[in-house]
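User: I'm curious whether this sequence folds into something compact or stays loose and floppy. Could you predict its structure so I can see for myself?
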Amino acid sequence: MGKASLNQMKKLSNGTQKQQNKEMQLSKIILEAYIEMDEACLNQMKKLSNGSHNQQTKELQLSKISWELCIKKDKVYLNQIKKLLNGSENQQIKDMQLANII
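Assistant: Here's the prediction. I'll summarize afterward.
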């Protein structure tokens, strides 16, 4: 009876150990699946973040180009005003010289 009981306990212990191994393997599979999903999610977030960064860079470049165009137009406008003012001043000087002659 003792030997049979011992064998029965070994079988039960072995069955319990196999069950624990199955549970550990299942837990490991589930954990690996979650890790893969997390990695995929992180990669997607990195891509979105990189895309946002690239979009912001493009927008900044467009803003910079717009500002450069405005500055160039302002410089042209200022040069034209200077020329007009210089021409008006020269005309006034000529008018004054003519008035002095007469």
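Summary: Residues 2-101 form the longest helix (100 residues). The chain has a mean pLDDT of 82.
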